[in-house]
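hi support,

uploading two proteins for the ticket. first:
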Amino acid sequence: SAAKVTASYDAATDTFSLVAKDTGPAAIAVTDTGGLLGALGITGATQQYGKPAQYKINGGPVQSSTSNTVTNAVSGVTLTLKAVGTTTVDVAQDVATTVNGVKDFIKAYNEALTLIKQQQAVDPAGGSASVFTGSSVIQTIEGRLRRVVNTADSSLTTDYLSLPDIGINTGAIGSSPGTTSQMTLDESKLTTALQTDSTAVVSLLTSATGPLSTLNTYLRDTTSYTGPLNTTQTTADRQLRDIGDRMRLMQQRLDLRQRALEKRFADLETAMAKLQQQSSQLSGQLGQLGALNGG
């Protein structure tokens, strides 16, 4: 069961016993919330604890473990003890996992450069700019990303001091212009480097002064709250707010001007109506005067 305990009843002695299924001398915890287990005598049952697993490696001394899963016997290796007996454990280097991890990094790297290029492009037809066109911060980030391949770690004393040494580059020397904008992987060269000296490869990839760690530090600082990317965004947001404020102020002035002009136009229409009325009255009076003079 999920309790990992076997319970048995001895009719001769009218008692229960509990036997742990797990290894190790841990006591069996019995919780009786309704009193049923106490009434049946299970809470006071005899307990038989699990025994520690014992094993030897290469004829060495006997070692014990409270679990059948042993993680500290061989560095980097997890052993699962399943039965009594002798077995041979073959430990081999997992080159494929490392190669796949490098491939994932290269894929993400190339996607980032492609996005930056797209967001800096200018429409050749209409001449309209993209989001990052002319941004010095983005141009600096792009340049730093491209330099990672040519960054060497002089603190290392191995044969692998830069990424091209283990098969990571942007194309062979002498490649035609425009064909070296993407990071590429010579999988065979990386595999050979891992099989020859995996420790040196790991040192290059993880060294605090290596190309990847220094790039990571640069990007973390650049994208931090106090970094230039956020500062540029904050400045742009403030400029947009200022433009919005000026537009609202200008609109208010235009609205006031419109209302003033509308009032003047209405006053002018009223004045013209009065003039027309007065002109009609004057014409009528002149007509009457002419009739009197003619009579």
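and the second one:
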Amino acid sequence: MFTLSLRASIACVCSALASCVAADTQIGSHLDPLELAHPLHGVYHWDAPRGPSNVDAFAAWSGRPIELASAYAPNSTWDELHDLGWQMPAWASWAREQPGRRIVYALPMLIEPGDTLAACAQGAYDVHFAAVGASLVDAGLTNAIVRIGWEWDGDWFAWSSRGHEREYAGCFQSAVRAMRNARPEGQLQFEWSASDDIFWRTPEQIAAAYPGDEYVDVFGVNAYDVSWVPNSYPLPGTCSDECKRTRRETAWNDMMRGVYLTRDLAAAHDKPIAIPEWGLWDRSDGNGGGDNADYVARMHAFVNEPSNRVLYQVYFDIDYVDGAHQISNLDGNQTLFPNAAAKYRELFGGD
């Protein structure tokens, strides 16, 4: 049982990380969000070939240009990473249309049966990571942010770090070296990207899974409106407006423990943070917050608070196998979240 307080947890983890690596303030220094007018405004609404036009449609719906588009590498076979002609040119064309546009690219660490973090750490998959790095730079996406092995703290992906923290860190390092060496002239940035479950990892586990300042430019953490703590979700059928407000606040505080921990870890290493996935959630088990305008308002306040040093945020605007997230009216969608959608357009569209 992880019983340390949040403040004590942060102090312990920061101390452990500092003992593992020396801070390198040069890496990622040009990403300092304090130099931006606001955090980069991003969205995910499916991938190429339709993804770029979807991003533009979302911008029109929200009333604000999109500066950052989210995309995911294929994850069926390693060979797919050597043939990204269906994906890279489309996103490169989108990025060239407006100055300042860039993409954030999620890259799996392990893909095929039998792949292991230990083998990855020894460079077994470097040729595949190098192919992705070359494809990004050759397409002109030289400033892409690469989320290698995202949600490393969970147990739902093959590259879960649980029980294999040092192998995970070694795999991350090997992937970064391969991508950098493939095209040394590139300016790819690399994100160490957790879920809000990071709060439940011990300081020692977190420190062991950290690849080091030389390899990490951005600390990322996902932040969906979902919770299982008592007195949060599901919302009772007889829940009054005050009941909903109180329970949604409890869920927010639960989720934000991981976000605050990530923010403070990043600050200890002079790195910015990112919210690479956030979204409303309507779930079949009721553990999502539903049409929660307060969640949208709180997220807007957090990402726009300069002291949090948020580089970018990406709304996950699709309905997926895990439930509904889509806030926009794209694809003829009638969103399940009309109040939250109005709040999103009011706040994020007006930045």
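thanks. also noticed: The first strand starts at residue 40 and ends at 44.
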